[in-house]
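Help! Submission page says 'invalid entity' but I think these are all valid:
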Amino acid sequence: MSRQIKAPRGTFDVLPDDVPLWLKLEAASREAFGRYGYSEIRTPLVEETRLFVRGIGEATDIVEKEMYTFPSKGRDDSISLRPEATAGIVRAYIQHNFHKKAPLQKLAYMGPMFRYERPQAGRQRQFHQVGVEVLGTHMPEADVETIALALDVFKGVGLLDVDLKLNTMGCTKCRDHYRAAISEYLAERAGGLCGDCRRRMERNVFRVFDCKVEACRGLLEGVSSIDEYLCGDCATHFDGVVRLLDELDIEYRRDNFLVRGLDYYTRTVYEFAHSALGARDAVGGGGRYDNLVEELGGPPTGAVGFSIGSEATLLAVADRSTGGSSEGEGFQALAALVMVDESVKRVAFRLLGELRCRGISADMPFEIKSMKAQMRAANRRRARAAVIIGPGELDRGRVKVKDMAGGEEIEVEIGRIVDAVSEILARPAL
RNA sequence: GUGGGCGUAGCUCAGAAGGUUAGAGCGCCAGGUUGUGGCCCUGGAGGCCGGGGGUUCGAAUCCCCUCGCUCACCCCA
C-alpha cells in the first residue's frame, strides 16, 4: 500500500463517471464564448520563467514558492509550468503582433494550471481554469461584458446563485495614494494587528483586507474607501462599470475590501463566490490589467479578463445536485449482444460490426460467460436492447431482440436486425 | 511552511478497559431458473486493520516514528 504508485499529491484522475460533468462545463463555456464573440486560444503549458516573474510579480507567493520551475534541457533558460493563463496569452498577443494587426482581441481559454501548494477543498496543484481576456480596449463595456459572460458560463452549468463582488483598485497612481494612506492608518494601530497582518504590512498591505482575525477586522472598519483616492478617470471608469451592470440587471455587491491575488490588476476587480464551498468560496474572479501588456514588452494596451476555477465550480455544482440521485432508471441507447454459446461467436461479431456501421451503439463480451452473466452485464450497462444469438435461431436465419425496459422479446430475421434494434432504441423512456 | 481530524474488504463504515477464526451494508462472483437481466433467497471470493519500530505471553486496539488522505491557516482559482 505504502509503496504503491499514486497520482502525485494535489493531482487527481477524472474518472469516467465524472467526465460528463467536465464536458458539461467545457461545453457551456464554449457555447458562451461563441455567443459573446470570443475565440479560443491555446498557449503552452510551459513558458519561460521570466514571463511569469515579470507578469505576475517577483515578490508574489506564486512566483516565489508556488511555481514548478526547472531548467530546460539544452541551452534554454529556466522554464515554468504556467500558474495562470493571462501572462501566456498576453505574450502570444505581443508575439504575434496582434496589437498591430487587430488590436482588439477577445480570447478564451481553458486548461490546466499548476501551483505548488498544500491541497485543500477546491484547491489542487494541478487545477483547471476557464477564462477570457479582452485585449485592446479601456472601455467599461468590456469589463461588464466579461462579467456577463462569466455569469452565463455559471448559468450554463446550472449555477444560478453565484454572488458577484465588485471593487476598483484604481490606476497605479490612485493605488499608490491609497496604499500610503492605508499603511499609515494601520501603522498607527499595528499593535492591534495579528502577526500575519504585521507581516502583510511589509509585503502587501492590501492583504490585511481579507484577514479573518476578529481584531484585525475591527480595525479595518475604520479605514477609508478607495473612492476618496480615485483620480477622475478611474472614478469615471468605475461609474461606467456600475452603470452598465445596472443596465444589464446584474446584481453585485460593492466590496471595498476585495483585493485580487495577482499584482497586475488595475481599476475593476471582481470575484464570484458560492456559498456551498467553505473557506475558499471563490469560483472565479477577474479584473482589468491595463499595464500588463506594456510590462511584457508591448504597447500600452487596455485589457480585462476573468478566470473561473473548474474544480471549485464543479464542486458547487455537485453540491446543488445532492439528494436527487435518479440512478438506475434510465436506459442507454445501447444494444448488448448476448451469445448462447461459443458456436455463435463469429456470427455475433459480424452482426456487432454491422450494427456499429449502421450507427447503433452496440457491444458484446470478449469472453463468453453464462447467459445469465451476460444479461446481468447488459442490465448493468443499462442497455435498452439485448440481441440474443443462439444456434437454434441461427439455423432458421434469425436472432432474438429484447427490450430490456419492457421485457418483451421478438424473433427477427438476421437481415432485419438493424431495424428491429433501432425500433426498440427509439421507444420512449419508461 | 504551520495546525487539527482521519487511515480496518472494491466503496461507506462498525470493532479499541489488549485475548485466540476481524465484522456489517452496498458492490462483485456463482447458484436458485442445464438459453434470459432488474426484485427476492442462498452461498462464495475478497483484509500485511497505511508502513516501520517498541511494550506485552498476546496488539487493529497501548507508545514512538513515518507515509498518506483530509480540513483549516499562509496564499489563492
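Support: the input was valid. A stray whitespace character was the problem, and the output above is from the cleaned input. Chain A has two domains: 19-171+231-320, 332-425.
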